[in-house]
Amino acid sequence: MTKRNCPICGNTSSKLIYKQRYSKELLHNIESCKACGFVYVSNSYSQEFYNKYYKDMSKYEDTRDSDLHEVSLGVIRQYLLKNDEVLDIGCSTGHLLHLLKKKGYNSLLGLDPAPRCKEIAKEKYDVNVVTDTIESFKNKRKFDFVILATVLEHLEELKESLKKISSLVSDEGKIFISVPNAGNFYQDFEEPFGEFSTEHINFFSSFYLQLLLPEYSCMFIKSDNVAIFSVWQKITSLKKSVDEYIKKSTAKLDRINRIIDKAPNSMIIWGAGSLTMRLLQTTDLRNKVDRFVDRNLNMIGKSIDGIPIISPEDLENYNAPILISSYKFKNEIVNEIKKRGLKNKILTF
């Protein structure tokens, strides 16, 4: 057995709150992190031990699992698209996947370390299950939706396992998580210390799920006396988001360039704001401007690179085509041109 640091914040200092003995050889020290307050078993076995345990000792499914799966199904279906690729980690014999299949979802795969689960899942539910652990599982494609139904409470290397799981989730993909609700253990129970099972080494409340998943945004979370049910969406990295913005903006700018290239050589540009300033530097617009028009009183009468800025009232003296250099106020400007009875040709981006 090894001494665990806090699975949430990594702090090494914790306070013993209970010793739960299961046999002469097996004793769990249930402790609370002095830094963040998370409650966990501090003297657990290695992840390899637990992987072997679940492989050899899987209890498959019981009535309680089925009841939880019905609740989970209702939550999952709110966020799962019909064509989403789904991976159910720790799926046992595939009952939850079976429920999804009955609702018309077909891209389903289960993962469980117990070999018998694969056989039962195929025979009983006709769903595919891979016999493997989180750590060693490899897959060429990423999944749009990953299910972790009552899994996190079992993981010894919690953050490392979640890192691996996250690598299997597609960009902006989602994770469903259900865990026993440790925050409500004290309410309405019969069996003393029944929640301190040999298999549960992490004890969650909603608060600690959010601390555990900083790279995900919470889309849904609810709890009852038994469990917490939640859906999380992967947040695209800031750099990746900005890269995508640049890519799409470049495509839009290329379209604007094509419009400007085909436009007449003498135009009136309505709009002397930041968009026009950028276009003067990045396109051939500068060589096609005769006048600027703007409603901003602070700009009227001034000039940009020697080209005058006039007011809308002055437009009646000009018949050159008007290019509207604005997205936000484009429709308003078009309406104003028409209300003024101007016959100028109107161009827009």
TrEMBL record:
Tree of life domain: Bacteria
InterPro entries named in the record: SAM-dependent_MTases_sf
Species this protein is from: Candidatus Falkowbacteria bacterium CG11_big_fil_rev_8_21_14_0_20_39_10
Pfam families: Methyltransf_23
SUPFAM superfamilies noted in UniProt: S-adenosyl-L-methionine-dependent methyltransferases
CDD domains: AdoMet_MTases
Protein name per its UniProtKB record: Methyltransferase
